[in-house]
Design a protein that fits this description.
CATH topology of the largest domain: Rhopdopsin 7-helix transmembrane proteins
Structural class: alpha+beta
Shape: elongated
CATH architecture of the largest domain: Up-down Bundle
Number of helices: 22
Number of domains: 5
Strand content: 5-15%
Radius of gyration: 39 Å
CATH class of the largest domain: Mainly Alpha
Length: 750
Amino acid sequence: MDIRTQSTLLAAIVGLALGLSMLLRAGRPRVLTLYSVFALTVGGYYLAHFFQSVFAASAQSGWSLRMAAGATLVLGALVPSAALGFFLEFLGVRPSAYRYGRPVALLSAILGFAVGLTPLANNFWARLILSIWVFSALSASVSLLLYRMRQSDSRIERARLAYLAIGAAASIVFAALDFLVRYGIPFPTLGPVISTLYLFFLAQTLLRLRLMDLHEFLGKVASQTVLAVILAALFATLTLWVEANASLFLFNTIVAAFVLIILLDPLRTKVEQRVVAVFFRERFELLRSLANLRARLANVIDVAEVATLVLDGFNETRRVTHASVYLLAEDRPGYRLLDFRGPQPVPFLDTAAARGLLYAAAEGQKALLLENIERRIIEMRSRAPDRRRGRDELKRLNDMRGALSQMKAGISVPLVGNDRVIGFLNLWDERVPEAYASDEIALILEIAEQFATVIENSKLYEKMRERDRLAALGEMAAGLAHEIRNPLGAIKGAAQCLDPQRLPGEDGEFLEVIVEEVNRLNGVVSAFLDYARPLKQNFGPTDLNEVVTRTIRLIQNEIPPNIELKLELREELARVEADAEQLKQVLINLVQNALEAIGKASGQIAIRTLRPERFGEFRGTEAVELQVADTGGGIPGDQQLNIFVPFFTTKEKGTGLGLAICQRIVKNHGGSISVQSRVGEGSNFIIRLPALPSELLRAGARDSGTPSPAQSAPTPEPRPPAADDRLLAGADDRHRGAVLTKKRRRTATP
């Protein structure tokens, strides 16, 4: 069996295997079915040609050779029919083109059967005419590719079709050159090999929609070819020169096998690196830069420094025109721009805009590519989805595309830490669609994972620093409070001994001011001590609705008649692991701030408990919310970033520690507190706390995980505060550094 016959057998096996592999795919589209027919036809042609060569070489001239020759002619004539059917479907040409393609395919089949199954099979001119027709019909497939390439508006699509047209033309030319041998013109048999490679490349084009993946595939083919040649040369060097000596040949074969096993991995790595460096220089530089960037990130813990290193590293590769990092905001639901390179993207991405990205991250997608999203949108619209599931998917895809557009991202990698999305790493090269190959995306994912780890480590480090700082501050505060309170006590005692009521005129008023200001300063010292000392927490499963109800029952008589207090409590709310007394302290502080914001005007304070929508800050329904909203004057935008900073206050006699203590308590519960406010409309403070997993399962079993509308709970009937409530109120007020004024009328909320 010569090399020509072996190459036809190889082409037959590969063609049949490719066709069967596509047929075995579940839920395959029509284009894959037509490709299977095309590949099986090509494989069948080469298989019949193989048997014809074998029978001819064995000097058989009977019916077996006649059947093999007829099958070769028939299957060869069917190749253009299968090729046209596939390319018409693959290219999505106008329906009018089918009117021309189908007669050509039918005529090819008729000619094949007319020549292959009749005595014309032995006629030279009949075979020549059939061959000319076959190659002409195959050329029509190439012309379809070229026509579609000229009509395409996408650079990516034009490049992909150009590759396919070049491959198809090469396959046709080399298959035609194989016939030169029959006329005594020596020429190497390359048609089966080129046709096999083209079928394989065509299959990869159908399965790998991204052009950069095709580049990666070509690079791997080139590197594997070079590796195979090197290993074959090494094996031949060790074995061919001892072929006459059987024992020595066997020994050298074993030695060669060991040498190949030892050299395979390092040689393969080196060959792949050199092939990529020679043929794909830009990819090589990007991979090397990203590898160096990973090494530099190993010893950095500051988030801002890491962001600078990452963005500068990508920018230096000259493979990005836009790069940005978004991190989870602490003050409001959404993601805030940390740093960027190139044109500035949107400075803040709220949770509603990021819903599609969060959904994809929750589904396990590690990288979101703009071209894949757009391709999927086009595919969904072409199908005209009328089912609810299809419409929901199309809406999510549009949300994702909108979010990527706002962040100026071609690829967005969610930064996941502690089972939630804590940020996004965004890259885009607007000059080249599909700018990154799969191995490049894999390195980007590794850098993003390392970035997320640094963020989590930085938070842990900040917590340790905060703990040490508060410990030192507590020691200092204890001594400072002692040194301040002693003279304050003396001043207050001296002023009270003078008895301001007995002094006439301004002297008595001045003494009253002294006593009042001493009390205020003593309250500031107490608040400072409360902020500095470690919290004594008593955690346990806590019903947030019960905490709200008990707190409102405690303070409802302090609500003035001009303010309406409204409760909206979510029924069957999951419990949280919390200290109920500390949560009560936070709620009292927020309600008092709302009272002060509304003042003497008519207004409303709404307290709500609910479960947030699924794909918010947290990845699943593992959070519950407590909201305190008022209709006061609102908080200006330039002050919203500082309201949780210790000692920041806009009140005339405020300490600036109330909200700082609230934030500290909430963070110690593993939650977050944020504010949404507009001047003239009011403010809404949102507290999010992680729910107990067992409570989530129980709540999901009750309502199948579908949140119901918030149920309005009636305000509890007023009652006189009990002794323990009065004591608790005094303790809470002492912690927050402000006392609920007793000058307000004690009226029940209607």
